[in-house]
Design goal:
Blueprint: H1 3-22, H2 40-63
Length: 87
């Protein structure tokens, strides 16, 4: 990984740990009993993130398109002319 990615990753880890620790000191006004558990929202957020990632992996085969999905006649802006093309 490059240096910027490492800094971003470590910053995210520090923010997550700080959020988890802050949950022990902040007074909550829960609507349900499980919302009063320390670290509930940090754990719930992590679980939701995992579900989104795993769900996206399952949907990928259905949503993926072939490389030439839009047809061969679409020209890309940075592409080289193909052999046999008369411009």
């Amino acid at each position: 990984m490059n240096r910027a990615a490492i800094i971003a990753q470590r910053s995210l880890i520090v923010a997550c740990v700080a959020s988890l620790i802050a949950g022990f000191f902040i007074e909550h006004h829960p609507h349900f009993a499980f919302e009063a558990w320390p670290g509930f929202f940090a754990g719930f957020g992590f679980l939701a993130y995992c579900c989104i990632v795993l769900g996206a992996k399952q949907l990928r085969p259905w949503l993926r398109r072939e490389e030439d999905h839009y047809g061969d006649d679409v020209e890309l802006t940075n592409s080289q002319p193909r052999e046999g093309d008369d411009d």
